[in-house]
């Protein structure tokens, strides 16, 4: 299949393997994004099966299956739905398709290649918790996904899968599409809700705004990730038992991972949850096939740009939160960024920190001011203007965002023990800590690369810090 | 937002703050609970009168709720049983240092030239909790230095610490969401939308609550340094709300007025009129010397004793041939002295309302509400009054809050949609002349017929709200100056009949009008009657007590002929106004900020007026002027000091019997006056005695609606250099639906013809605030004096509008 003249599997980056395919079963199938293609491959069977049960039975089925949220926090979907206060209507389902975590591009493929599966997931979730209004928020830059979702939704409405009295039952659901306007932080669920309401995309304060209780328009709201929902049709069709038969007790099923960086075959893979190890993913021929020719692994980010980094020491850890956390990082959004021995570590850290500093919404001081300051310090170190004092300052400024010990991996080479996840934070959301995480990992795990880069100064050196020339620019609104 | 207070019989929550066990109120925010127990947690974004946003993170403290200690923003978390708090832990201190260092990263440190320097929370907290030095060596954020965001307010974005106070105030408190955050991250700035200035009547509050010098107000910019300021607490006198203020002066000149957080009245907010009209005190046009008209007809300055003797001669006529207009500007003590003087002389006709007020008997008989009653959660408030946003803006803020945050139901019963319409549950906008019929229909329960052009469905909705058993407050005032006040009397009586438990808040607008009523400086003939009698030659001496009827009384022609006819025109004033300029003698008075005294607000709450500066020239306190005249007239009035006046007032007027004059505002708010002991006729009797003849609607005409704007041609606004140019234009507004019928175009110039054949050319614009069939023009607006169309002798005014 081609898209705009490009072979779609390459363009989309999906790579098939032998794993049982729960959410990617239609990837690579012709016309998988059309209703015809979907129905030909068992589409809308899940909602048919669900509608034969009572909503609470469907809810229990999902709870039993233990679908860990794929948006980053890994919280089980069925349990989260249960937090909605009883008997408060209207209530809403909001689909988080704002995928923007650096390195993450799995939701995009789900929306581009199998939009009906997502729509069916929305139907099942909505039926299970008794709601009739769903909002599907798609990242602003994802033009193809937007077009495919919109077309699929029109088809689904026309065919009676969405709308009034779905499949002749008295279950009705409306799905409203909403395109983002280009802010990473809007992936955070409360900022997403603000954005949907038409406000500036800034996170709300928890408490009191736990979306399940006070969400969109102040009503109970479920926010779920695209991939989370894409699992539901399979579960509704095949049952919770079948789902739990895959993966481990605490991490059942499969999960999608997006690998980028210096491996032979970067791409999106559906892997078995809980048992697949990072070594298998990065080195087995079935998956990434190892490092580029002649290169060795230096470090990798195991769960999206905001996750503390891992070293080759951690390769044998499986995709299992209960093991990754104590080892000093998180699985997050399932994005693995691989760095080989050619990588300029300070530069890599700077690049990631710059992203988070730039994406700060500006609401809270530690992130707004601290993130940018970290970015500038790293920038001047990379540019060769840094001093040893800057290295201390990186950590000290970071500690204003995340007081106390910051998680990091163990390193045999450095004789370093792991500091377990999570961290404390002074910010409202995780964007602030995310600006610090790459800087902290880089400096903690590769101190020598920084020492080589900076000039030695003593504490009482009057010019303790070198400053690059920064152009002064007036950001006025013109002479008013 | 008012935290539950101690007096409520609710169980308390036990928490530990810095090792000490304290009791907090359920639901109370930790930052407030700590402060009430003497532990101040530093903060920037938190403001007790606004919803917390948790933006600045300065208030992070170590909190343990059983899961181990950790930093939590104390402005965001409510106390919970057993909570342990450490505001001095090392972790807390490190966080405070860190946040301050980060706040200073982009702060310009131009303190020596910053108006806030010396009273700046950022400066103070940096000294108290900050790191001592900054390690930030990069270039700071740069923006064009202060940009005007409105006619009165400048914004310096470099100084801004993005605390969201000003923006929250604008949208949450004022309901004028005209300033916003734009851009994001490190580039975030506060700004207006292009071509939409922050023109809010409440803009000055943002300057007061800005924790840095980012927002400055035109009148105070570079006028003084905080450490040079001397201050005194007082009460705002520009309207009858009686907002509590602090007056600040430098070198014997008022330079700034700030709002004081009075729980009962203004919650620290002020309108820009209350805040900035102090400028008028130092206007070049202030009267400094007594002026006596000489033989040649010119004014000549005179010595006080000569001027007083001259004025005294004017009183040497039959007492019933003397009429007094005005008195609402005076402090209570001045009002009482004038009242005593006039009583001694046998003069029985004084009216401080100047023709735009309510029936005095009505005001005296109303069961009174307080602002807190009106703004109570869950109440029903009938707005039988003008546009409170224009006339009593701080009351507007309280009622807006009640509607938006506390579930109060507002009902508009007014000539047009007002500033509160957006928040109202129901709106009735009857045609002028029928407001009493509409209230009557509600009282009679005849809800099926259209009355006064009001939709029966709306009538039913109002009836349901009023009958819901929720407490009802009626704000009663003049909704239309072109309409007979008797209609309001009857409407108020009808509402009282319908809801006998309803309480009333009189929206009489003029400053100390309630003081005048309580001290007896309101009695006998009304201003209109006095003027009529004067025009008929039955009044010889007319006294203007700080009144400018020529500009302020709705019927211009009547005032002018009255002035022409009287023998003696005596004025006591602070300015040479249109009216006082025609007097035979003007005695210069000292005013707001220049004299000690007291003020009674629309709730009958008494609060102090305090002097901060000396009056210019020979201006004197009003009580002294009355005393001087009393001496000249051989009256037996024995007062040598303000205390003497107050003692006499307490002895003479029961409502003031219990006033503790020197401690009126101890503990915050002034007390409500005691019962006046007066027993007048009932509301029903007063209404029955009110006769108003409303002519039938003429098919070709429109009924005139005239009301006030905050910024007008009034003396205080016009004498304040920063405000004078804000006066509203006299535009004629019509309901959009009337345009076609009249064949006129939006924005075109039309000819307005009045009942007496007078005509005027005016620009016309469409307004959705108006019902069909009316023409609206603001009173005392710039460009056209609608007073020339008004007549005190008709119940309504019908006009015609012709294209071209
Ligand atoms: C800064 C930030 C960015 C986030 N971005 C995304 C995102 O792009 N997509 C997403 O599904 N969840 C994102 N999340 C997680 C959401 O807040 C939320 O937890 C998730 O959508 C819940 O869905 P799930 O339970 O199905 O995972 C983000 C969280 C944070 C703090
Ligand atoms: S941490 Fe950053 S992105 Fe998150 S709320 Fe604070 S400023 Fe906004
Ligand atoms: S201008 Fe002042 S009040 Fe407004 S956000 Fe900035 S610092 Fe806060
Ligand atoms: S005062 Fe609490 S976060 Fe600003």
Throw out a few tags for this protein.
A: 480 residues; alpha/beta; Rossmann fold; Ubiquitin-like (UB roll); de novo design (two linked rop proteins); 11% strand; globular; disordered N terminus; B: alpha/beta; Dimethylsulfoxide Reductase, domain 2; seven-stranded mixed beta sheet; six-stranded mixed β-barrel; 24 helices; 26% helix; binds flavin mononucleotide; binds iron/sulfur cluster; binds FE2/S2 (inorganic) cluster
Please provide a written account of the structure.
The complex is a heterodimer of chains A (480) and B (804). By secondary structure, chain A is of the alpha/beta class. Chain A has three domains: 22-244, 3-Layer(aba) Sandwich (Rossmann fold), CATH 3.40.50.11540; 254-340, Ubiquitin-like (UB roll), CATH 3.10.20.600; 345-451, de novo design (two linked rop proteins). Chain A is 37% helix and 11% strand. Chain A has 18 helices and ten strands. Chain A has helices at residues 8-12, 35-40, 45-51, 55-65, 77-81, 106-113, 115-129, 143-158, 189-196, 226-230, 232-244, 278-283, 321-324, 345-359, 365-382, 388-401, 431-445, 447-451; strands at residues 2-3, 6-7, 92-97, 133-138, 174-179, 221-225, 254-261, 267-272, 297-301, 335-340. In chain A, a hairpin with a 5-residue loop joins strand 7 (254-261) and strand 8 (267-272). Chain A is globular. The termini of chain A are far apart. In chain A, 56% of the residues are buried. Mean pLDDT of chain A is 92; it is low at 1-12 and 464-480. Chain B has 804 residues and is of the alpha/beta class. Among the domains of chain B are: 13-88, Ubiquitin-like (UB roll) (Roll), CATH 3.10.20.740; 302-357 and 513-661, Rossmann fold (3-Layer(aba) Sandwich); 360-506, Dimethylsulfoxide Reductase, domain 2; 702-803, Beta Barrel (Barwin-like endoglucanases), CATH 2.40.40.20. In chain B, 26% of the residues lie in helices and 19% in strands. Chain B has 24 helices and 33 strands. In chain B, strand 21, helix 15 and strand 22 (503-506) form a beta-alpha-beta unit. In chain B, helix 2 packs across helix 3 and helix 17 packs across helix 19. The longest helix of chain B has 16 residues, at 90-105. Chain B is globular. The A-B interface holds A 183, 200, 205, 207, 357-366, 368-373, 376, 393, 397, 399-400, 403-404, 424, 426-428, 465, 467, 470, 472-477, 479-480 and B 52-58, 60, 70-71, 76-77, 91, 94-95, 98-99, 101-103, 105-106, 135-139, 141-144, 147-148, 161-162, 180-181, 183-189, 191, 194. FE2/S2 (inorganic) cluster (FES) is lined by residues 43-46, 54-59, 73, 75 of chain B.
């Amino acid at each position: 299949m081609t898209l705009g003249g490009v072979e779609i599997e390459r363009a989309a980056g999906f790579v098939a393997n032998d794993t049982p395919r729960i959410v990617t079963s239609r990837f690579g199938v012709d016309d998988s994004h059309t209703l015809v293609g979907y129905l030909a491959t068992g589409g809308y069977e899940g909602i048919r099966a669900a509608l034969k049960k009572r909503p609470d039975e469907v809810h229990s089925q999902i709870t039993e299956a233990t679908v860990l949220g794929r948006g980053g926090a890994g919280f089980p979907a069925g349990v989260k739905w249960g937090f909605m206060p009883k008997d408060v209507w209207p209530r809403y389902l909001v689909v988080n398709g704002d995928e923007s975590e650096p390195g993450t591009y799995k939701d995009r493929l789900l929306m581009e290649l199998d939009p009906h599966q997502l729509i069916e997931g929305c139907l099942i979730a909505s039926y299970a918790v008794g709601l009739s209004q769903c909002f599907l928020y798609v990242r602003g830059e994802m033009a193809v996904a937007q077009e495919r979702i919109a077309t699929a939704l029109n088809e689904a409405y026309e065919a009676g899968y969405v709308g009034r009295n779905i499949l002749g039952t008295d279950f009705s659901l409306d799905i409203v599409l909403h395109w983002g306007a280009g802010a990473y932080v809007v992936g955070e669920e409360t900022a997403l809700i603000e954005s949907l309401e038409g406000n500036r995309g800034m996170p709300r304060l928890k408490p009191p705004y736990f979306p399940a209780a006070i969400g969109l328009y102040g009503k109970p709201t479920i926010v779920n990730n695209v991939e989370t929902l894409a699992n539901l049709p399979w579960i509704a069709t095949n049952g919770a038992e079948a789902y739990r038969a895959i993966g481990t007790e605490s991490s059942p099923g499969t999960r999608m991972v997006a690998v980028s960086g210096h491996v032979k075959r970067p791409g999106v893979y559906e892997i078995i949850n809980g048992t697949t190890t990072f070594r298998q993913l990065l080195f087995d021929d079935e998956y990434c096939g190892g490092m580029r020719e002649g290169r060795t692994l230096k470090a990798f980010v195991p769960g999206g740009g905001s996750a503390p980094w891992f070293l080759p020491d951690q390769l044998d850890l499986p995709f299992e939160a209960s093991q990754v956390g104590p080892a000093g990082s998180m699985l997050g959004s399932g994005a693995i960024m691989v760095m080989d021995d050619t990588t300029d570590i300070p530069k890599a850290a700077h690049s990631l920190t710059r992203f988070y500093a730039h994406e700060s919404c500006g609401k809270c001081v530690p992130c707004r001011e601290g993130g940018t300051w970290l970015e500038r310090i790293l920038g001047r170190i990379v540019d060769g203007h840094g001093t040893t004092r800057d290295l201390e300052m990186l950590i000290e400024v970071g500690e204003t965002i995340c007081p106390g010990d910051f998680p990091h991996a163990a390193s045999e080479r450095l004789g370093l023990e792991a500091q377990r996840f999570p961290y404390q934070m002074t910010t409202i959301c995780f964007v602030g800590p995310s600006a610090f995480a790459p800087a902290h990992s880089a400096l903690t795990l590769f101190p020598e690369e920084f020492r080589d880069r900076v000039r030695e100064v003593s504490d009482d050196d009057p010019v303790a810090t070198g400053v690059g020339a920064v152009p002064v620019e007036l950001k006025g609104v013109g002479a008013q | 937002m008012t935290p539950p207070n101690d007096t409520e019989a609710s169980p308390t929550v036990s928490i530990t703050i810095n090792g000490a066990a304290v009791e907090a109120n359920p639901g109370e925010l930790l930052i407030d609970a700590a402060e009430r127990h003497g532990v101040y947690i530093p903060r920037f974004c938190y403001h007790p009168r606004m919803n917390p946003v948790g933006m600045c993170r300065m208030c992070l403290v170590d909190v343990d709720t059983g899961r181990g200690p950790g930093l939590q923003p104390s402005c965001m978390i409510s106390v919970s049983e057993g909570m342990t708090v450490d505001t001095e832990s090392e972790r807390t201190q490190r966080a405070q240092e860190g946040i301050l260092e980060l706040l200073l990263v982009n702060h310009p440190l131009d303190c020596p030239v910053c108006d806030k320097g010396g009273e700046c929370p950022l400066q103070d907290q940096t000294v108290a909790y900050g790191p001592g030095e900054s390690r930030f060596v990069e270039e700071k954020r740069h923006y064009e230095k202060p940009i005007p965001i409105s006619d009165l307010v400048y914004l310096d974005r470099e100084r801004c610490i993005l605390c969201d106070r000003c923006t929250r105030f604008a949208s949450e408190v004022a309901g004028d969401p005209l300033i916003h955050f734009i851009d994001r991250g490190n580039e975030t700035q506060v700004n207006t939308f292009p071509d939409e200035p922050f023109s809010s009547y409440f803009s000055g509050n943002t300057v007061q609550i800005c924790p840095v010098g980012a927002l400055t107000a035109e009148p105070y910019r570079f006028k003084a340094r905080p450490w040079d300021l001397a201050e005194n607490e007082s009460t705002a006198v520009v309207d009858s709300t009686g907002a509590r203020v602090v007056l600040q002066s430098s070198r014997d000149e008022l330079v700034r007025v700030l709002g004081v957080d009075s729980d009962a009245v203004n919650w620290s907010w002020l309108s820009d009129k209350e805040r900035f009209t102090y400028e008028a005190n130092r206007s070049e046009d202030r009267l400094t010397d007594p002026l006596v008209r000489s033989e040649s007809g010119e004014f000549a300055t005179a010595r006080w004793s000569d001027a007083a003797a001259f004025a005294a001669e004017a009183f040497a006529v039959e007492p019933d041939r003397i009429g007094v207009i005005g008195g609402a500007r005076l402090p209570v003590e001045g009002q009482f002295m004038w009242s005593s003087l006039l009583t001694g002389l046998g003069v029985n006709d004084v009216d401080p309302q100047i023709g735009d007020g309510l029936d005095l008997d009505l005001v005296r008989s109303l069961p009174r509400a307080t602002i807190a009653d009106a703004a109570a959660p869950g109440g029903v408030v009938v707005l039988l009054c003008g546009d409170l946003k224009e006339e009593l803006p701080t009351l507007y803020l309280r009622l807006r809050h009640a509607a938006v945050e506390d579930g109060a139901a507002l009902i508009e019963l007014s000539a047009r949609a007002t500033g509160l319409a957006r928040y109202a549950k129901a709106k009735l906008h009857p045609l002028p002349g029928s407001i009493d019929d509409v209230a009557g229909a509600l009282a009679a329960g005849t809800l099926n017929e259209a009355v006064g052009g009001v939709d029966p469905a709306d009538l039913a909705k109002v009836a349901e709200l009023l009958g819901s058993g929720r407490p009802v407050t009626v704000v009663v005032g003049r909704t239309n100056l072109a309409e007979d006040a008797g209609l309001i009397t009857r409407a108020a009586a009808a509402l009282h009949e319908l809801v006998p438990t309803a309480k009333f808040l009189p929206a009489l607008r003029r400053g100390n009008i309630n003081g005048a009523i309580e001290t007896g400086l309101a009695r006998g003939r009304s201003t209109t009657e006095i003027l009529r009698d004067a025009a008929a030659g039955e009044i010889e001496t007319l006294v203007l007590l700080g009144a400018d009827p020529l500009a302020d009384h709705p019927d211009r022609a009547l005032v002018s002929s009255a002035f022409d006819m009287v023998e003696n025109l005596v004025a006591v004033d602070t300015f040479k106004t249109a009216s006082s300029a025609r007097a035979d003698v003007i005695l210069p008075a000292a005013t707001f900020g220049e004299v000690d005294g007291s003020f009674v607000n629309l709730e009958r709450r008494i609060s102090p007026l305090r002097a901060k500066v000396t009056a210019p020239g020979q201006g004197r306190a009003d009580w002294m002027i009355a005393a001087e005249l009393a001496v000249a007239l051989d009256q037996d009035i024995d007062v040598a000091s303000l205390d003497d006046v107050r003692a006499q007032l307490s002895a003479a007027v029961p409502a003031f019997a219990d006033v503790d004059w020197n401690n009126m505002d101890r503990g915050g708010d002034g007390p409500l006056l005691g019962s006046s002991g007066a027993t007048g006729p009932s509301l029903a009797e007063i209404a029955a005695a009110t006769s108003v003849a409303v002519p039938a609607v003429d098919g070709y005409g429109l009924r005139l609606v005239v009301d006030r704007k905050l910024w007008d041609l009034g003396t205080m606004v016009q004498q304040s250099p920063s405000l004078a140019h804000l006066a509203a234009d006299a535009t004629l507004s019509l309901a959009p639906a009337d345009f076609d019928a009249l064949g006129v175009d939006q924005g075109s110039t039309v000819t307005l013809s009045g009942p007496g054949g007078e005509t005027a050319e005016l620009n016309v614009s469409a307004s959705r605030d108006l019902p069909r069939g009316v023409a609206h023009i603001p009173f005392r607006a710039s460009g056209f004096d609608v007073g020339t169309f008004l007549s005190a002798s008709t119940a309504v005014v019908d006009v015609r509008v012709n294209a071209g």
